[in-house]
Amino acid sequence: MKLRVSAVQYHLHTIQNFQQFADQVTHYVKTAAEFNTEFILFPEFVTTQLLSISETGQGQPIQNLALYTDAYRELFSNLAVEHGVYIIGGTHVTQKGDKLYNVAHLFSPDGHIGEQAKLHLTPTEVEEWGITPGESLRIFETPKGKIAMITCYDIEFPEVVRMARGMGADVVFSPSCTDDRHGFNRVRYTSHARTIENQIYVVTTGTVGSLPTVDFMRGNFGEAAVITPNDVPFPQDGILVKGEINNDMVITADLDLSLLYEVREHGSVTTWRDRRFDLYPDLGKVETETLPTPEWLKADRNVRV
Questions:
Q1: pLDDT in tens, 113-149
Q2: Which residues contact 158 (CB under 8 A, 6 or more apart)?
Q3: Which residues form the CN hydrolase domain (predicted)?
Q4: Which among 115, 118, 144, 223 is annotated as catalytic?
Q5: Would you place residue 297 in the very low, low, confident or very high pLDDT band (cuts 50, 70, 90)?
């Protein structure tokens, strides 16, 4: 089975109202849709652009993002339904009770919305923004297979991706937001490690541009990539496609899941099969969520299998 994925290098810049944000998001979705993509990935903290909306010229505090939650969900959900695609809408800071969470959202073509709170938080998220970590990992079953949304810092912890793969995820979407090359390389290099350890695909992207009035979002260093295991059926450097550093753009690639199954059984190395449960535990017990097959997909003549 094959699936087509796109990843957005989202350009952050100061805006005056929500409509400008909506117009920019819509532009990226329409661009990817022109390539008949099936999954579109936006970066982490994509909605921090909304904090630049101000009549005083001063950026809003992170807590105000929760005020945009309904509008954010409506925008991305409508686009997913309109274009018949799955959209990983980056992450958005939401409020539950008196706590803030950094939550990745999966918007389905049938209007279903899945959520995955970030599990590991950076010092800035905890100390400056007061965000609370999530408590569980979820796997989402789509008509094109099981996927996981593992955000930025989370990809740097091998246990998380082991758990995701243990429950059958073949593709990990990893929205990220890094402010310099050090942070970018941490995410990129560990994404490569996760594909080798688990024989999966990782689709990642980050923010580019700058929000001069928003604290901790003034610097962004990003590049989208589709990363593969390092074995014969795949590119030698493990990169199926990548963007150009810090450019405003969308990348697209086809993922062939049959190649993953092939290398797991007959690859030069079989890292997933060769795990030693006599030395360490099986991390494959996590909560799962099954997404229903939408009617449009059942009848779609262009679905690639």
A1: 999 999 999 999 999 999 999 999 999 999 999 999 9
A2: 190, 193, 194, 197
A3: 3-257
A4: 118
A5: very low
Catalytic residue among 44, 115, 125, 223: 44
Q: 295: part of which helix (H) or strand (E)?
A: helix 295-298
> What is the distance between the alpha carbons of residues 100 and 276, in angstroms, rounded to a whole number?
38
pTM: 0.93
Q: Can you say whether residue 36 is alpha, beta or left, with left for phi > 0 and alpha for psi between -120 and 50 degrees? A: left
**pLDDT: which is higher, 283 or 239:** 239
Query: Is 196 a member of any domain?
Result: yes
Of 184-198, 268-282, 291-305, give the lowest mean pLDDT range: 291-305
- The residue to which tokens 């969520």 are assigned: 289
Residue 185, domain extent: 2-298
Contact 125, 119 (CB under 8 A): no
What size, in residues, is the chain? 305
Q: 44 catalytic, yes or no?
A: yes
**Structure token digits, residue 287:** 């909560």
Answer yes or no: is 303 within a domain. Answer: no
For residue 118, indicate whether it is catalytic: yes
State the DSSP string of 236-254: TTSEEEE--TT--EEEEEE
**Given 38, 125, 146, 152, the catalytic residue:** 152
Dist. CA 186–CA 103, nearest whole Å: 21
Whether 304 maps to a domain, the answer reads: no
